Amino acid sequence: MNDLKKKILDQADSDLAGIESALKDNLTTYLEIVSKAAGHILFSGGKRFRPLLMILSARICGYDGTYDKTFSVIFEYLHAATLLHDDIVDEATLRRGQPVANSIYGSATAVLVGDFLLARSLSIAANTGRIEVIKAIGDVTEDMAQGEIHQLIRKGSLDLTEKEYMEVIRRKTASLMQGACLTGALIADAQEKEKDALSDFGLNLGFAFQMADDLLDYTSDTAVLGKTIGADLREGKMTIPLIYALKNAKPDDRVKMETVISDTSFSDSDFNTLKRLLDTYGGIRYTTKLAAEHVQKAKDALSVFAPSQTRDLLSMLADYTISRDL
Amino acid sequence: MNDLKKKILDQADSDLAGIESALKDNLTTYLEIVSKAAGHILFSGGKRFRPLLMILSARICGYDGTYDKTFSVIFEYLHAATLLHDDIVDEATLRRGQPVANSIYGSATAVLVGDFLLARSLSIAANTGRIEVIKAIGDVTEDMAQGEIHQLIRKGSLDLTEKEYMEVIRRKTASLMQGACLTGALIADAQEKEKDALSDFGLNLGFAFQMADDLLDYTSDTAVLGKTIGADLREGKMTIPLIYALKNAKPDDRVKMETVISDTSFSDSDFNTLKRLLDTYGGIRYTTKLAAEHVQKAKDALSVFAPSQTRDLLSMLADYTISRDL
Hints:
Two copies of one chain form a homodimer.
Chain A lengths: L2 H9 L1 H13 L6 H11 L6 H12 L7 H22 L4 E2 L2 E2 L1 H5 L1 H21 L3 H23 L8 H26 L4 H28 L2 H4 L5 H4 L5 H9 L2 H12 L5 H13 L2 H19 L7 H15 L3
Antiparallel strand pairs in A: 1-2
Helix pairs in contact in A: 1-17, 2-5, 4-5, 4-9, 4-17, 5-7, 5-8, 5-9, 8-9, 9-10, 10-16, 10-17, 13-14, 13-15, 13-16, 14-15, 16-17
């Protein structure tokens, strides 16, 4: 575990414990299979990044109520619901080192338990009693569905631009983190500039988070990542390291890369060739730099708040998005 | 078309036209594939039963605003979302005489477009500005997911009781109709007794609707039904005509029925044998009677309202649930 992660876990210790309890307490269901299948995805080593963002966002805006843990689970349930559905869409086999839920419980159950978790999120959101929160969550949920569909229909498209990639990841990833931070501000009755700042923080952090994720598919290995290395590429997902390198490659190298991308059963040796070319044409460096810029933007957005331990912790979470090894 | 249907269509003509417009207007999406796949399920001959229930419920409580059509689409989008997901879960091939969406657009798109429609429902619900409406919709969505899961895990279970069947259909079907009627009352700021009456009306009408649906699987034919006759049985769905007949059959006839139920590739002749036994042991008669009793309960619930054209129309809709041929 790296030092930053250790520091975050130390400081967020009691919040994370509160989130775990709330995740269990709000999953009262009448069917055992629902608890089991939902539990498989919910209690398999998730980082609780999104609920923690909401709780800290509420705190930095002066929230002193007792419902922040309860409301924070909205964002973990929503996240888990999309993971359940995405694993079906992507035909994935592993997540966090475990077989995916649909391979254990079947796709039918995974579809329906995902729907159930979406519905739970909505019910808990209704309990905030705040229409703005529900609107934000409606927007996020629409974004996530459309982002995933956009990604799906552009799989294997060699002409995907950086701009289109940014739109896809804004919807599929950044929107939820933005929504979590905004919701924290909303339940704290924050001022407009605080809401805007946290919304901005969550959005930029979300961009950095997804870029780091997309890098890991090329720079990590299966044992650490808990899912198959090169899985994105095999599914035809065009991510920024690839988009950038393709754009800058010499024609013959571009052809080499395109050949690997178009071959869904590429060998390890093909994959290593591609990785070398990504590096040669700056795909890795460019993505690292772009992610770091978004982290910086996120941290800059926090400047409307006075210095505090909570602000430091949010800042560390932003740094963490690009320093994590999984 | 039967006389009752014609009468309903005449009286509800302008409401139904308003619903069609609202269904189109609220489907502003940024991806063509979303409109197309959502449109495939939304504009393929749906009866708009649920939105019409909401509109009439609002009207009978004195609603005189202009948003009833807009809010009514919540219930058609939710319905369409569950149809998209159910067709994946059931591995269905035909719906309303058309190939199911997942066979045209793929399961991945059908899962995600279903999620998108759920999200749109939520966003429109947020626009009502009423927390009670959102709570009702959260409850309905949880019910539907759990009802479908319950049905899924009890497929082919010969020991399913009438009580358990009633719980499954309450959640998977009746809850949405109940929610549509209750929402109509809520947006009209109705009195408690009116809310209760409409909730009761929708619930009982929903029970009758599903029982009639379950009967049609045994009494209609594929051309009229628009889906494969005997499809429920082939999927192992234990419905009330079957449950009742099994309970009352002589041991040797019960064994015959169980043999057909357990054989997912039963022949037409097997199916006809089963249908004859359902009839012999009163499964058809009992279901018809039970559905009619629920229609009567639904109509009785309307007695808190003064006589009016709207009350008559709601009453006709209740009768229609058991007189429809599809």
